[in-house]
Design brief:
The chain has 701 residues and is of the alpha/beta class. It has 24 helices and 21 strands. Among the domains are: 8-42 and 154-180; 47-143, Nucleic acid-binding proteins (OB fold (Dihydrolipoamide Acetyltransferase, E2P)); 256-287 and 302-426, P-loop containing nucleotide triphosphate hydrolases (Rossmann fold, 3-Layer(aba) Sandwich); 458-616, Rossmann fold (3-Layer(aba) Sandwich), CATH 3.40.50. Helix 9 crosses helix 23. Bound molecules: adenosine-5'-diphosphate and magnesium ion.
């Protein structure tokens, strides 16, 4: 028997030809690779079901009963063989479309059979299509039956005899050949005992050949735990190391700027959540640790003022601060907002984006380098090489998921004396399980409270039939002095059509809401920045009542007087996008509305997205639904992340295992940060052997 690290070629039954396809098709080079090629499902023939008890379509079932009827019905392609199986609880229909002739001859009405297959539903009744049939004998009816793994395979592998069954045979050879010493334990024994887990040796064998469902569950639980636990251990270690190694600038004093702003300028009382997050930030900054913190807060939870007050802490200690936003519109709005909030405090705030050119740009750059500007607000123009600061103390990144990792990391380098503190903000709430993984090495603060007096947005689902009534509703709201957004999808792949769609929507609206009574703004990504800005400003100033736009307005735009958000083709938007768009209304004192216009026909998933939006305003609940519907790999901002590729674990479903893994990892590292204790030797060794992809994570923000 070769060792686990041997070339797969040398496993009995493989040889050079099969080894070649295994490498090409499945990336299996060694015996160990094969061992980690886990089944994607199992055929459970360990129990007999009763016909009356089964109720889930798609469920694998096995019955023992008498074949009561067998006849061919239908013509041509609908021709099929239909049988009825009766056990002591009921009757199940069996259907075959192929091999009819042969089956007619070999099956006998009146005999007892063991029938195995997958339950399907047809016209409200269950049947089994193409069941496996086996005559019942005293022998096969009593003794324990099989629980077989099914492995992913491909056409090329099948040609070499390595279909699911062939792979199963190979796996049997491999499993029978390995010894406990080949699969050393990676977890401390007390941990295994305390959580009643399978050992690694047991788990890796049982995941392939469980005796029954219980053994399979035990193996899966153990291996999922291991996967998530080591990832958490690694992330938490990175965080601890960074905290120990990186000195941050110590913002020792809360000074004049902060205090004067708080006493004299802040136009409202901070919410408890805002205060708590500011305290958390303050604790980081005051301690001289390097801060790398994520602030999560739903749309409208008031992150901007938290960002501003954090920047004031830097100013009070003689540092500059930068705030970077993903779009020009949003950056300008932050700039205007902050300038207004600060009023006459004498703080110099500058703006920098791609649209700031020539002399103006040169002046800003010079002032930044000289330290004459205290705060700079801008777009990704801020991270370009020629932007230098005199003494940048903190970088704040709004809507961080819109930036790539490198863009975010670039702000770390903007101070020659050491990395500025980093605060990243997101209004796309991330499910807890994802945050723990994606941002596992960041500290996370959550603003989980909206400012008082907000009325939740009322959301409605409408279609083309309701168009006139929706327009009537828009008129009524406009008559009350409110403003309305009408948003169209704009997706790169279908851009030309989307643009046409938007323009014809705009023209139709211009007819139905004619000048001079109504004024309409339009903003989309193909417009020049100056034109966009002009149109946007008209809406902000209340000169136009309707804003027709694409998702460029999704992020951050704040017009409190706008109370209606109409989203066209709402089924084409993702949940987090819809939630962001809805967040544009409900910012004033008035009741606001979000109207989701869709076509009549919706996919099951599309319908669920719309229903989720109608049901709840809670960004975290929506994020959880998004994760459930689309899976972790598709959540906005996570696509490029290799971190979410697990062998077994599924962040949408394994939240409990993950929470346990993180808690245990935290506890272990608190007692023994370097994992130096003898009882942690296994952990240390395993981390060292698997540590290869840990590099990039420490710089995720
Ligand atoms: P977001 O978290 O979505 O970025 P903003 O910072 O834009 O939210 O805040 C949304 C609105 O709420 C702004 O008009 C802001 O002035 C206001 N706001 C923020 N905090 C409070 C508060 N504590 N009380 C009342 N209004 C607040
Ligand atoms: Mg914001």
């Amino acid at each position: 028997m070769p060792t686990l690290d041997s070339n797969i070629e040398y496993l009995k039954g493989v040889g050079p030809q099969r080894a070649e396809v295994l490498k090409k098709e499945l990336g299996i080079f060694t015996c160990r690779d094969l061992l980690f090629h886990f089944p994607f499902r199992y055929i459970d023939r360990t129990q007999f079901h009763k016909i009356r008890d089964v109720r889930n379509e798609g469920e694998q079932v096995q019955f023992r009963g008498i074949l009561r009827r067998l006849e061919t019905i239908g013509e041509g392609r609908a021709r099929r063989l239909v049988g009825s199986l009766r056990d002591d609880t009921g009757v199940m229909e069996l259907v075959w479309f192929q091999a009819i002739h042969w089956l007619e001859k070999s099956l006998q009405v009146g005999k007892e059979y063991i029938v195995f297959g997958r339950l399907s539903e047809f016209n409200g009744r269950f049947n089994i299509t193409h069941p496996e049939m086996e005559e019942a004998t005293p022998d096969n009816s009593q003794k324990a039956r099989s629980f077989d793994p099914v492995y992913p395979s491909t056409d090329k592998l099948t040609q070499k005899g390595l279909d699911a069954r062939g792979l199963r045979k190979l796996m049997r050879v491999l499993i029978d050949g390995i010894a406990p010493a080949d699969l050393p334990e990676t977890l401390p024994d007390p941990l295994i005992a305390q959580y009643k887990m399978a050992t690694r040796w047991e788990a890796l064998r049982q995941i392939h050949f469980p005796e029954n469902q219980r053994e399979l569950d035990e193996a899966t639980r153990r291996l999922k735990f291991e996967e998530l636990f080591f990832l958490q251990l690694r992330l938490l270690q990175i965080r601890t190391r960074r905290k120990d190694a990186l000195r941050g600038f110590a913002f020792g004093s809360i000074g004049e700027h902060f205090n004067t702003f708080y006493r004299e300028k802040l136009p409202f009382e901070l919410t408890e959540a805002q205060k708590r997050v500011l305290r958390e930030i303050r604790a980081d900054l005051g301690a001289g640790r390097h801060m790398n913190r994520l602030v999560q807060g739903d749309v409208g939870s008031g992150k901007t003022v938290v960002a501003l007050m954090t920047m004031l802490m830097a100013l009070d200690n003689g540092f500059q601060a930068a705030l970077m936003a993903p779009t020009e519109i949003l950056a300008q709005q932050h700039f205007a907002n902050i300038t207004e909030l600060l009023g006459d405090l004498g703080i110099k705030v500058g703006f920098l984006s791609g649209s700031v050119k020539g002399k103006k740009r040169a002046a800003i750059l010079e002032q930044l380098a000289a330290g004459d500007l205290h705060i700079v607000v801008g777009t990704h123009a801020l991270i370009e090489d020629w932007v230098t600061f005199n003494n940048l103390g903190i970088s704040i990144i709004d809507e961080q998921h819109r930036f790539g990792v490198e863009q975010r990391a670039a702000l770390w380098k903007k101070n020659a004396h050491g990395p500025p503190h980093v605060l990243v903000m997101t209004a796309t709430p991330i499910p807890r399980t994802l945050a723990m993984t994606l941002y596992g090495d960041l500290d996370v603060s959550v603003i989980d409270e909206l400012p008082p007096g907000r009325k939740p947005v009322t959301t409605m689902h409408k279609n083309e039939h309701h168009r006139l009534r929706v327009q009537g509703f828009m008129r009524d709201e406009i008559a009350k002095g409110r403003q309305v957004y009408v948003v169209y999808p704009m997706i790169e792949e279908t851009e030309t059509m989307d643009l046409q769609n938007l323009m014809s929507g705009y023209e139709a609206l211009s007819r139905d809401f004619p000048q001079p009574e109504y004024q309409i703004s339009i903003v989309h990504g193909k417009m020049k920045s100056a034109d966009k800005d002009f149109e946007m400003q008209r809406f902000v100033k209340g000169e136009t009542q309707i804003m027709v736009a694409t998702t460029v307005i999704e992020v951050g735009v704040n017009v409190p007087n706008a109370s209606v958000m109409v989203i066209e083709n709402a089924e084409r938007f993702g949940l987090s996008q819809l939630h962001q768009l809805r967040g544009r209304v409900g910012r004033g004192a008035e009741q606001s509305f979000c109207i989701l216009m869709t076509s009549f026909k919706l996919s099951a998933e599309g319908r669920e997205r719309i229903q989720t939006m109608v049901r709840t305003n809670d960004g975290f609940e929506i994020a959880e639904a998004d994760l459930r519907l689309r899976g972790p790999g598709n959540i906005e901002g996570t696509q490029q992340s290799g971190m979410l590729r697990f062998l077994l674990a599924d962040l949408a479903r394994d939240g409990q295992v993950l929470t346990a893994a993180r808690e245990i990892a935290t506890r272990i590292l608190e007692l023994d940060p370097a994992l130096a204790a003898p009882e942690h030797a296994r952990l240390r060794q395993h981390l060292a052997s698997e540590g290869r992809d840990a590099r990039v994570w420490s710089r995720i923000s």
